[in-house]
Amino acid sequence: MQVETQEASNWWARPRGEAHANWIATYQQSLNARHRTALVQALKEIQPETLLEVGCHCGPNLVRFAQEFPALSMIGVDVNAEAIEAGQQWVASRHLTKRIALHAGRIPEAIQRLPSKSCDVVLSCYALAYIAPADLDAVLFEMGRVAIKAIVIAEPMRIDRPLETKRSLSGYSEWAHDYRAAATWIGTWRDRVMRIAPVSPPVDRLNGILVAA
What we know:
Blueprint: H1 3-13, H2 20-28, H3 34-46, E1 50-54, H4 60-68, E2 73-78, H5 81-93, E3 100-104, H6 109-112, E4 119-125, H7 133-146, E5 147-155, E6 166-167, E7 173-174, H8 179-183, E8 194-203, E9 206-212
Parallel strand pairs: 1-2, 1-4, 2-3, 4-5
Antiparallel strand pairs: 5-9, 6-7, 8-9
């Protein structure tokens, strides 16, 4: 992995100390955020039975999906062990442990451990923005390898006009990739039809949801 990817991963992985409770609560209180509702609509068209989310934090997307899709089984992976532990407690409090499994791990390594064609949908939601351009192909390859029905990407992305690379005050970089152009060269995405639904206005910089089915 490139230095820029490692910097972003390390920032997200670090303990939050006294800010931990508020940080977790912010995610748990965002179940009805606009981009999560848009993801629900995308999944209704796919009707998956299994789903993997890379960069799930404490699981707000997965908890929302559990409400909307009673038969859906899900796995979430995130680099922050504290977020995963809080998510496991949250999932248990909602009696969802049989449907949602959360694990700490970095991408793409955490995906590489999964069998090919093992989840109907592989999802990222504001996680690939922290992958440097030189590392993107490897992550997209693994997502395509695991996905059966579709890959769903909800991220800052290049649609009509480029979005500039953003350098946060914390020191890591955030990218808006051209996912359609990148996926053209990736074998595990071959024969998938891609479409992008704009998210307007953007949620932070998340301005689109790409579905490759």
